Amino acid sequence: MSLLLRNVRVLDVETGEYAEGDLRCADGRVAETGTGLRAPDGTRVIDGAGAYVVPGLIDAHVHVTALTADLGALPAMSPSYVTAHAARIMGETLARGFTTVRDNSGADFGLADAQAEGLIRGPRLLFCGKALSQTGGHADFRGRGEHLTDDHPCCAGVGRIADGVAAVRAAARDELRKGASHVKVMASGGVASPTDRIDSTQYSMEELRAIVEEAEAANRYVAAHAYTARAVNRALEAGVRSIEHGNLIDDRSVELFLEREAFLVPTLVTYWALKEEGRAFGLSATSWHKVDAVLEAGLTALERAARGGVKLVYGTDLLGGMQRHQNHEFRLRREVQSPLDVLRAATTGAAELVGMAGEIGTLAVGAHADLLVLGADPLEDVGVLAEPARHLRHVVQAGDVVA
């Protein structure tokens, strides 16, 4: 299948400049850009009439199996039921302009393979399997009166419990065995878990280092859920590559991000959505009251990180019906960052994090032909990307118009 876009403005995200002309896709890749391009017979031709073409978006923190904000309820659900919801969620995500996502616990090789084979309509899916959590950690959803756990691999859920260096090594190796693109570890308390504090640290340094060692041995990396500066800094010192959330970072955190060449994936929109709608979509009262501790701090942390030169990546972390707000993150980030910097976080920055620089998040010749055709300029106002129903004309994935 070949596709030719005529009379469009093609964005180079690295330079922030548009080139007016044409763009041709062939065999799922960007084949050429320029003016007056010719198309082979059978090529679909679209006259963009001056439209803006940007790379397909990348959301580096999603949970495509999270059909509810009550994450503890997922393991009791039928895997086939969860899969049906995940297929719906992935299709809606693609329609919003996200052609690649990094699932940060819950999705598995089955969903990734189904998408790659065309059985599920959705973004390219990079997954970590189940996140590693200590007993009483952010992926331990037992109430105080519960004792038994069931980590049977058939069950849906976002985490697995592993305590001690030997156990975390085995758990990391097991997720990598199943094809994980990275290992996710819960390095602090969180909102959705019932028995931990937001300001707690989780896992010992020895356990964190062991997990990092196993990921690096497989040429993969570790992403860590962490909120407070203490938790973030411990994770960075242990060799974690990607910090998720990081709402309460300090100046030392910024220094460590730069020293370790690590990435920060803020997820501002999820706290806004949880506060507004979390209770309606299954969030417990206990968890809802924990949102305030991180809600106001998010923009402050983003500003601190941006000012310090930290590598920032786009993420949303939305759950249940709140996933429809995925593009609202663009509006929130423009309070602190320039439109180009926000767009880079959702394209080249995210591509670098996941080890696919030059392959996705770019319109360079040879890259995957994932792109968006927009009716307005996102560099004038990145809020254009927050309104796909109004501004998004076409979503192109692997050279095919899919929305």
Automatic annotation (TrEMBL):
Residues 52-387 form the Amidohydrolase-related domain. Keywords: Hydrolase. Its EC number is 3.5.2.2. GO terms for molecular function: dihydropyrimidinase activity. It comes from the Bacteria. It holds the Pfam family Amidohydro_1. This is D-hydantoinase/dihydropyrimidinase.
